[in-house]
Amino acid sequence: MTTVPALPNEIRVAVPEELWMECADLPCVLSVDLPLSAFTVRELLRLAPGAILESNNPSGADVPVVVNTSIIGWAEFEVMGQRIAVRITELA
């Protein structure tokens, strides 16, 4: 059995491993949040491929990794060929 928190700062609940295996394929939404400085609706409407957006984060600073509205860790952006990837640096 694995012990996991039911809710943050609450009682831990023992969950049988079989239940975790059944849940393993459930979909979830993962996002990486990048704070932007002074981003307006006008700029949003003008977005196009190749647009460059100025971030509040210092170059190389970690950004939050969010799953279903909960921060699960921190990551950094990395260029891999023609794509931007996210490297997980810390799990919460």
Summarize the structure in words.
With 92 residues, the protein is mainly beta. It contains 2 helices and 6 strands, in the order E-E-H-E-H-E-E-E. The chain has helices at 17-23, 41-45, and strands at 2-5, 12-15, 30-32, 63-67, 70-80, 83-91. The chain is elongated. 1% of the residues are buried.
Beta-strand portion reads 35-45%
Q: What strand order characterises the main sheet? A: 3-4-5-6
Query: How big is the Rg?
Result: 18 Å
The number of helical elements comes to 2
CATH superfamily: SpoA-like
- Gap between N and C termini, in Å? 22 Å
Q: Any idea of the CATH class? A: Mainly Beta
The shape is: elongated
Q: What class, by secondary structure content?
A: mainly beta
- Using the 3D structure, state the CATH architecture: Roll
How many strands?
Answer: 6
Domains (count): 1
Helix content: 10-25%
Q: What summary fits the major beta sheet?
A: 4 strands, antiparallel
The CATH topology turns out to be: Surface presentation of antigens (SPOA)
Residue-averaged pLDDT: 82
> Poorly predicted ranges (pLDDT <50, ≥5 residues)?
none
The string of secondary-structure elements, in order, is: EEHEHEEE
